[in-house]
């Protein structure tokens, strides 16, 4: 029964590759290539990486990957090097009991709940959003002109203009008309449920 290293060397020489040439083509260090052929396993990295080396070499030599990998698995590693094989992930999970899983899930849910409460608290105590889309700042109109006063705020806020509450639709949009008689500053105030206020003003000028 031929050993893995002997077969690998035979295939390399059969395809007229020197160690240096194979190193250049595969980018695998010469020391690793020599270690594979000599089966000096302690000179090689972790087993999954070694398998990758063998697959790459097989492709370069035009040899069936499965054949060389099967020989590698048969000969590598000896008993004193089994620790080089990375255990599957399941091994690490075996130590986690259902009780531990339950605690982990409970902690995760607790953190999510706390995060949600913090978000709600911050959102509740912030100043409401308020945007006036009309009129534009410094617009000039004739006396007696009706202009639109409109904008958008939070859906749960209240909006006041000239101390009068304005209707807000389900999207937070409000709109009303105002008759301009003289140059003035229009002030709109939005008040949140927590009593926080945001005020926006627009200057409207009357032409002479």
From TrEMBL:
User: Which keywords appear in this protein's UniProt record, sorted alphabetically?
Assistant: Membrane, Transmembrane, Transmembrane helix
What sections of the protein cross the membrane? 100-119
For whether the record's keyword set contains Calcium, the answer is: no
**Gene3D superfamilies the UniProt entry points to:** Immunoglobulins, lambda repressor-like DNA-binding domains
- One MF term in GO for this entry? DNA binding
UniProt cross-references to InterPro entries, sorted A to Z: Bact_Cytoskel_RodZ, Ig-like_fold, Lambda_DNA-bd_dom_sf
The name of this protein is HTH cro/C1-type domain-containing protein
Q: Which organism is it from?
A: Candidatus Woesebacteria bacterium RIFOXYA1_FULL_43_9
Q: What is the lineage of its organism?
A: Bacteria, Candidatus Woeseibacteriota
